[in-house]
Amino acid sequence: MIELLKAILFGIVEGITEWLPVSSTGHMIILNEFIRLDCTPEFMEMFLVVIQLGAILAVVILFWNKIFPFQFRDKSKPVIEMDKIMLWIKIVVACVPAAIVGVLFDDVLDALFYHAIPVALALIVFGVAFIIVERRNKGKRAKIRKLDEITFQTAFMIGVFQLIAAVFPGTSRSGATIVGALLIGVSRSVAAEFTFFLAIPVMFGASLLKLVKFGLSFTTMEAGVLVIGMLVSFFVSVFVIQFLMDYIKKHDFQVFGWYRIILGAIVIILGACGVITV
Fold first, then answer.
1. pLDDT digits over 150-200, tens only?
2. What 3 state SS string does 219-238 have?
3. Which terminus, N or C, of the chain has the lesser number of Cβ atoms within 10 Å?
4. How many domains is the chain built from?
5. Residues 58, 67: Cα–Cα separation, whole Å
């Protein structure tokens, strides 16, 4: 029972931090320092990634009408909406850089950077980036204000920023892609939506990779922990995504920048004091 309660807490943290640009990886590393599941290191490594599948499902359901290209207006056959087909092609283009690096160097990057101090530095650096970019853009009208205005070149450039998140845990995949999108003139709402859509293939692919490496042999407790974590992350993600989309209609991302800087500083202090493993 205690392990299932821990899984619920991990699911809550995942659901909140996956979509806000504050680094779910950073929060998971910190949470894992204080609340440890009674499991093998191999299962924990897999769990921290695969729990994201619940968060992915939230995006799919909330944005179904924007991303599903087949509409059944006539019972006889579906209508294919080409604008959504083009959107998925752009998503694939944006995912290519991170996918290549993830498949080739996943284990190496985890060993090098999946630690408290590198994560803390990434939190701070991109926290500063959010503040600088938002202040630079203040009062400026975004060049790209609709999803269909994103070109293949723009999609690839956003994908390059996503690559940074793939290399440096703590950067935040959503944080990196949103900062990149804002830098090249994408509006906040479009940047957030495109970031959500990018998460579908990226997070599904990462989860599949971890599952294949771990294998499909789970104990009853491990299966329960994994399912509970995914379910909780799904329900929390639904509310967090809706909150973020409403929030950015009236506010910018600077508050998340300051939060990242403060959190990164706290992690460094805790590491220096020996409270968490660096």
1. 999 999 999 988 888 777 777 788 888 998 999 999 999 999 999 999 989
2. CHHHHHHHHHHHHHHHHHHH
3. N
4. 1
5. 13
How many degrees, rounded to 5, is the angle at CA 200 between CA 197 and CA 205?
145
Could you tell me how many helices (H) and strands (E) the chain has, helices first? 12, 2
- Alpha-carbon distance of 267 to 278, in angstroms, equals 9
Model confidence at 112: pLDDT above 70: no
In a domain, 153, yes or no: yes
Residue with tokens 């701070």: 124
Q: Tell me the per-residue pLDDT of 219-229, one tens digit each, with 9 for 90 and over.
A: 888 889 999 99
In the prediction, which pLDDT does 205 show? 82
Within a domain: residue 233? yes
Return the structure tokens found at 95: 């995912």
Res 163: pLDDT? 83
Cβ atoms of 225 and 37 closer than 8 Å? yes
Q: CA-based Rg of the chain, rounded to a whole angstrom?
A: 19
Asked whether residue 74 is assigned to any structural domain, the reply reads no
Q: Is the pLDDT of residue 102 over 80?
A: no
Task: Name the residue range of residue 200's domain.
Answer: 2-69+87-272
pLDDT, tens only, 189-213: 999 999 999 989 888 888 888 888 8
The answer to whether the CB of 122 falls within 8 A of the CB of 57 is: no
Question: Nearest 5°: phi and psi at 72?
Answer: -100, 75
In the three-class reduction of DSSP (H, G, I as helix; E, B as strand; rest coil), residue 181 is classed as: helix
- Is 236 part of a structural domain of the chain? yes
Side chain identity at 148, as an amino acid letter? Answer: D
Residue 178: which of 114, 119, 254, 273 has the closest Cα? 254
Task: Give the residue from 64, 56, 59, 65 showing the smallest Cα distance to 205.
Answer: 56
The pLDDT value recorded for residue 158 is: 93
